[in-house]
Amino acid sequence: MVGRSRFRYSRWDGSQVGFDLDADAVLAEINDDLLYHGDLNAALRRMLQSGFSDRNGERVKGMQELMEKLRQARRERLENYDLGGVYDDIAQQLREVVDMEREALDELAREADASGDARRKEVTDEAVAERQMKLDLLPPDLAGMVRELTDNYDFTSSEARERFEELTDQLREQLAQRWFNQMSGAMSDVSPEEMARTKDMLAELNQMLQDRAAGREPDFDGFMERFGDFFPENPRDLDELLEAMARRMAAMQAMLNSMTPEQREQLQALSDQLLEDLDLRWEMDQLSSNLRQAFPDLPWNRRYDFEGQDPLGFADAAQIMNELGDLDQIESMMRDATSPGALAEVDLDRVRDLVGPEAAESIERMAELARMLEEAGLIENREGRYELTPQGLRRIGRHALDDLFSKMARDKFGQHELIRQGLGHERSMETKPYEFGDPFNLHIERTIRNAVARSGGGTPVRLSPDDFEIEQTEQSVRSATVLMIDLSLSMPMRDNFLPAKKVAMALHSLISSRFPRDYLGLVGFSEIARTIEPRELPEVSWDYVYGTNMQHGFQIARRLLAREHGTKQIIMITDGEPTAHLTASGQPLFHYPPIQETVDATLHEVLRATREGIRINTFMLDATPYLQRFIERLTELNKGRAFFTTNDTLGDYVLVDFLESRRNMTRRAG
Predict the structure, then answer these.
(1) Which of 416, 589, 575 lies closest to 499, judged by CA?
(2) What is the mean pLDDT of the chain?
(3) How many Å apart are CA 317 and CA 612, to the nearest integer?
């Protein structure tokens, strides 16, 4: 039975290789997947499937690799063993008992011959012949041999009799153990006392099931007080107990299913022959029926095809079947895991035993991922689904920004930006003596220090106008930008969608962190256009429709900018010419190749934006000659700029242009 996971930790002694991956690194690992597909849960699932490497280069195996290891462990068992050995060993020993009895009969006949007593020889020969005939007529199957030797044969050899009794006791014990293995993973003693106790346990368990069916509350706690030692899993309630037993019974049923019909028939006959006095059959059959009804989804009909040469005895067969059942269950849990947190239910100790420590370590690491992200405040679980928190959204944007900046030369992203002092709202952390007309942004610490230096100390400190020192501010110019992103189907088809979305995330991160007074609006456009809220940006995906409706995008961008003040611009990222526009009735009209009506409607919006003082800068990906001609016409009307770029350099172009424009605005204002 696979239970809950048991994570184990040991004190660091300097020899271990640490797991070097924090929550920020985990989020960075799925950053591109999340931005491309727009689904946090799917990104976590794909990470779960494929695995990853931490910053030490240590490989954490994904579910695909781990499940292959599980399948390999199953194949090894099936290819090495043969279930025919379940009774072959004891059958051979029984044949040796028969041979021992034959030798005793031969010795008896020789003694009678040597005695010289004719009458004794006659009687002895008759008795020996009768017993030899019984031995010759023994059934070939194990169950038949046991039945005939038990019921219809009187051993001549006391040694053979004792050996037969030992073997039947051993066989009875193994058969009983087979049944008891279905009841408890802790039992090793099948003494008469334990057999009787097992029957009592089964009877009470069946009674609890009857009580539940009748609407009565079963006495689970009392049952566990009396029989808790049967269940090393320490089930918390009746449902967990029943599931543990059902899994054991399903595993033993799988062993029967995996045998040949002849093997199965002999095993059943042996059980009937040797266990009929235990009075367990009714209780077992009753419980089996109840458990099959309670857990219909368990693999009661599962069978394994053993192909090996090594015969398995009863005990080994039961162990192998339990291992195969556990391997199947672990694989099923891993296959059904929809998020890393679901792996917390896997029994790591069992994985370690069956597959190895490396697999258990990978599952443990995977199970930690979601918890790590939640504890860091980057994601939260809402009604069974993970969602980014505001902090997680900012972190995704910062990762995108860092990724783009890492590709640019240090002097390209504005670190040498010209700063002019003057009236504004951005603190420069510098001070100056107050002069008439300055904004009264008093720096308290410097002002008091000036007064103390002038007066020589003492309290109270008395201020004079000459002591006043004020904070200087950088020239601050407000900018309003709308980023228009092409979401048409051609963007992912040409590998342009992810770079464009990373630019959007990076630009949002840049403006919110370095220019918090600036405005950034987001508009996505395909057959129609729509506003995108910053919190929605990570989950934005392309549209499975045809159409590049720049006209509608410009309409929405103009409305957003109409509410803002300062310098206004539209940044448009696209890989296609305008192929859709809204008709007078507000319905989208798509046509490819573009028709003049669509081009005219789009340029009409460009003229409106131009009259409203909005600059349009266009970044073209995979520009066709037609798109180039259209964009040249657009820039001619608007006096904006056009950039012909690729998905590799898009981020460099957009961020450098934005920062250069921002610096020029500051310079002009100064």
Answers:
(1) 575
(2) 78
(3) 84
d(C-alpha 341, C-alpha 327), whole Å: 20
**613 pLDDT more than 80:** yes
Residue 248 to residue 321: CA distance in whole angstroms: 9
Alpha helices of 295-347 — where are they, by DSSP H?
314-336
Q: Please name which of 558, 592, 556, 553 lies closest in space to residue 573, comparing C-alpha atoms.
A: 553
Query: Do residues 117 and 108 touch, judged by C-beta distance below 8 A?
Result: no
For residue 465, the surrounding DSSP H or E stretch is none
DSSP character string of 324-336: HHHHHHHHHHHHH
Domain ranges of the chain: 85-176, 187-305, 426-474, 479-669
Contact call for residues 303 and 257 (beta carbons, < 8 A): yes
Helix (H, G, I), strand (E, B) or coil at 594: coil
Whether 547 and 590 have beta carbons less than 8 Å apart is answered as: yes
d(CA 596, CA 592): 11
The residue to which tokens 């049967």 are assigned: 230
Reading the block at residue 462, the tokens are: 């008395």
SS3 131: helix
Which structure tokens are listed for 258?
């995996």
Question: What is the Cα–Cα distance from 191 to 173, expressed in whole angstroms?
Answer: 8
What distance in Å separates the CA atoms of residue 498 and residue 647, rounded to the nearest whole number?
9
Alpha helices (runs of H) in 456-527, residue ranges in sequence order: 490-493, 497-514
Cβ density class 394-417: b for 16+ within 10 Å, e for less: bbbbbbbbebbbeeeeeeebbeee
- Confidence category of residue 181, pLDDT binned at 50, 70, 90: low
Q: Which of 83, 89, 66 is nearest to 321 (CA)?
A: 83
Do 198 and 180 meet the contact criterion of CB atoms below 8 Å apart?
A: yes
The residue type at 172: R
Non-local (6+) Cβ contacts of 669 within 8 A are: 420, 475, 477
User: How far, in Å, CA of 208 to CA of 287, rounded?
Assistant: 11
| CA–CA gap between residue 571 and residue 481 (Å, rounded) | 7
Helix (H) or strand (E) holding 38: none
Would you place residue 419 in the very low, low, confident or very high pLDDT band (cuts 50, 70, 90)?
very low
State the virtual CA torsion across 382, 383, 385, 387 in degrees, nearest 10: -20
Write down the pLDDT at residue 607: 96
Can you read off the two tokens belonging to residue 128? 């020996």
State how far the Cα of 559 lies from the Cα of 567, in Å rounded to an integer. 15
Question: At 531, is the secondary structure helix, strand, or coil?
Answer: strand
Q: Are 91 and 145 in contact (CB under 8 A)?
A: yes
The residues near 264 (Cβ < 8 Å, ≥ 6 apart) are: 256
For the chain, the residue count is 670
**Partners of 471 in the beta sheet?**
431
Q: Is the pTM of this model over 0.85?
A: no
In one letter, which amino acid is 602? T
Look at residue 548 and tell me whether its pLDDT is greater than 90: yes
Q: Which residue is listed with tokens 């972190």?
A: 395
Comparing 69-83, 102-116, 468-482, 649-663, the range with the smallest average pLDDT is 468-482
Is the CB of residue 563 less than 8 Å from the CB of residue 482?
no
User: For residues 401, 405, 410 and 412, what is the CA-based torsion angle, rounded to 10 degrees?
Assistant: -90
CA distances, 273 to each of 96, 181, 265, 477 (Å): 21, 19, 12, 97
Taking domain 479-669, whether its CATH number is 3.40.50.410 is answered by yes
Residues 6 or more apart whose Cβ sits within 8 Å of residue 109: 124, 125, 128
